[in-house]
Hints:
The protein has a single domain, classed as Clavaminate synthase-like (Double-stranded beta-helix). It has helices spanning 27-40, 52-59, 138-143, 147-153, 172-181, 215-229, and strands at 4-7, 14-17, 42-45, 83-86, 116-125, 133-137, 157-160, 185-188, 190-192, 199-201, 207-210, 235-238, 245-249, 253-257, 268-275, 281-282. It is an alpha+beta fold. The chain is built from 6 helices and 16 strands. The longest helix is centred in the C-terminal third of the chain and has 15 residues, at 215-229. Helices cover 21% and strands 26% of the residues. The strands form 4 sheets. The chain has a 7-stranded mixed beta sheet, covered by helices on one side. Strands 11-7-8-16 form a 4-stranded antiparallel beta sheet. A 3-stranded antiparallel beta sheet has the order 12-6-14.
Amino acid sequence: MTIKIRRLSHALGAEITGLDLRETLSLESFNYINQVFLEYGILLFRDQKITRDQHITFSRYFGELDNNDAQPRDRDPEYHEIALVTNKPKLNGQPSDSRYTGRVWHSDRSYTTVPAAASLLLGLEIPDVGGETMFTNMYMAYDTLSATMKNLISGLSGIHSSNTRPILDLTTERASEMRILNPPVAQPLVRIHPETGRKALYVGDKVKTILGMTNEESEPIIKFLCSHATRYEFLYRHQWRQHDLLVWDNRCTMHIALGDFDETQRRHMERTTVMGTPSGQICNIE
């Protein structure tokens, strides 16, 4: 079957048809897929009834995979490369640690010194209505800033925190564990994509302050940049179907998981994360 491309929105995204990801991919085919990926920022593969091993194998074409050491409670106990994004209760009946994952605008692993390059999320159980994911094009967000704003934020770094997910059973011990695993990390507000060479805005709801500024000085800048980055014309909203595999480029996109669904229904997804290039620095602040 011939590989075909269909754009998903004006801003970003492309659906690829004609591939069965259970089969071995030729280098030629992957190189073509990767070029589409770099151009559109998001790839959609529908009806991919793949196993966890096949999910991991395909993901490794994009690079080295994260073992999810930054979020060990979320990963599958047997497949450490797979993070569970699920509201499925644990075997002991307790609520899932990852049931509220991603419900703020963010780029994966931005709170670590090796932010994610790509994420590959497989939808296995989908609510009847809702539970969608929204994405925004951070190239567009940067390109449409005024020259004055570009000059202002050039060289500035935002401090990213992992502590943005609602945790209903938060204890002093759990809070201490989170601080040790993921201390605040400063990342440039503008990053240069290592493969395309293009500049992209790098902010989100995990950014709490700007390095070297007070909270009062930082707040209006961060608020403006996040609001600007999520303008309607930069967005793509994905309506999930069972067995969708969605791949996105964290270096030039940002996303949010929407909680607009009946939480008595199951929303179970599994994600692999491709490690990116090292950036940022650990900050000794809260």
